[in-house]
């Protein structure tokens, strides 16, 4: 098969760009340092823009970055758990199950990449729990004080979303309290419209 990407620009199809599991997994396997460093810098910049108000341009940026970091953290944890399962570190079970405990072509990583991902995930998690949660809690209190319940519900939803990647064994007192408070607050204050 002839390599069209060298002969024709733009290429007639994007087939030569295909990866077994998508671009994000591919980038995490090939250059995890770049993705992790970029996410950390973006989250730091978003948190630095916090002006203490839930109105204005800083708040949506902070919320977006929290969502982005949590979602990418989910991909990182999937890759880490899958490779632990492949290497037999999660038990002796060799049959394929579901999720990360299944045979998937293209997700095997070398140990150096896994170490970089593990360290990066821990740094991102620390920034989320130490810095981002404080910012969101402060914005949430201010919105509730101003009776802006819709904004306070958004903050509580993001606080709860920050803990979506934790296993039950990783939940500490702060995580459980945050999840319960968010659930109660949103249940009592959010208007769930029946119309679609």
Report on this structure.
The longest helix has about 35 residues, at about 110-145. The protein has a domain at about 20-145. It is mainly α and about 200 residues long. The chain is built from seven helices and no strands. It has helices spanning about 5, 25-30, 30-50, 60-85, 110-145, 150-160, 175-190. Helix 3 (about 30-50) runs parallel beside helix 5, helix 4 packs antiparallel against helix 5 (about 110-145) and helix 5 (about 110-145) runs antiparallel to helix 6.
Strand/helix succession: HHHHHHH
**Computed structural class:** mainly alpha
Number of strands: 0
Mean residue pLDDT? 85
- Low-pLDDT segments, ≥5 res: none
What are the main properties of this structure?
mainly alpha, 196 residues, 63% helix
Could you outline the blueprint of secondary structure elements for this entry?
Blueprint: H1 4-7, H2 23-30, H3 32-48, H4 58-86, H5 111-145, H6 149-161, H7 173-189
Helix pairs in contact: 3-4, 3-5, 4-5, 5-6, 6-7
